[in-house]
Amino acid sequence: MQIIDTEILFRPDSDAVRFLPEGPYALPDGRMSWVGIQHGADATTGSINLLNLQNGVNEFFPLPGRPGFAFPTDQPGVFVTGFERSVGLYDTRLATWDPFITGLDSHVSNTIINDAVLFDGNLIFGFKELEFKTKKAGLYLWRRRDHAVVQLRSDQICSNGKAIVRNTDGSLTLFDIDSPSKQIIRCRLDIEAGTVSNLSVVVDLTSEEVFPDGMILTPDHQSLIVALYDPGNPKAGAARQYNISTGTLETIWMCPGSPRVTCPQLIMHRGRVRLVLTTAVEHMPLEQQASHPNAGCLFIGDTAFSSIGDQPVFEVPAMGSKVG
Q: Is residue 322 one of the residues assigned to a domain?
């Protein structure tokens, strides 16, 4: 097993933006996007951010809600974004919001959209229950073929990292995290039927203090890289790489002075593939912040990968009406 120290890639210049960074994603033009999910403990707004990896300049785009995810689309400057209980298109050039899915999770209260994954034009996204207590948050599929919204699960608390693998027989496996469970699970995903089945545990962290958060596949689809949100007071936070077949721990990346690691992503940086890790200040009292001066920073570390793996753009469909 290899242990890799990371360094700070970007330090946000405000407490609001450092509060809860997540969702880094490589853009076709060489920049990187990420979201500020929430700009403070009591805030109800967040942001899309675009980081220039060459000069370190970050562009900030405030949103009228709390975004769980934002992916680039085939339209320049436009992101498919999920925030609060809607999914739509946010145009950073015009500062306009055009939802095409509304009324999500409307049968329950106190949930908002969280993490998501793109696969073959389809969008799978989950919700989080804001008190982190009740198993009522939904997991949804937006199916590109017919623009249908299908609820896959209704029993999660905080839906986080997701990854999808197409197996040799053509079937699909969804790897999914409900953070309070402290487990990474696999299940069979049937996009046409709109179902998940055959759930099993890949990685079990219930004996540890950490919570699995964001997650990506390695480029060879053989392993998962998961960010670990540590509510305690360690000197460094961490992300880990686990083998999908065996659950074996393969690599650890350490983030000094920042224990709450939220999301991983691979990017091309200075001519090589490196791992970006977002971290947060969320739930960190002032005295703890003093001992963790790097909380809320974005970190970067070395890898042995030769590509950045699966990071597709969302192809904006022609839709005659909203779905809700």
A: no
Calpha distance 119→261 (Å, rounded): 25
Q: Tokens at residue 71, please?
A: 């992916």
> Residue 126 carries which side chain, given as an amino acid letter?
G
Q: Structural domain of residue 233, as residue ranges?
A: 2-302
In the structure encoding, which two tokens stand for residue 37, read together? 């999910």
Q: Mind listing the pLDDT tens digit for each residue in 48-105?
A: 999 999 999 999 999 999 999 999 999 999 999 999 999 999 999 999 999 999 999 9
Distances (CA, A) of 226 to 14, 157, 239, 247, 259: 26, 18, 6, 12, 14
268 found inside a domain: yes
**Each residue's pLDDT tens digit, 268-293:** 999 999 999 999 999 999 889 899 99
What total number of domains does the chain contain?
1
Helix segments in 48-142, DSSP class H: none
Return the SS3 of 286: helix
Q: C-alpha angle 8/35/24, rounded to 5°?
A: 55
**Residue 221 φ/ψ region, left for φ over 0, alpha for ψ in the -120 to 50 degree band, beta for the rest:** left
d(CA 235, CA 320): 52
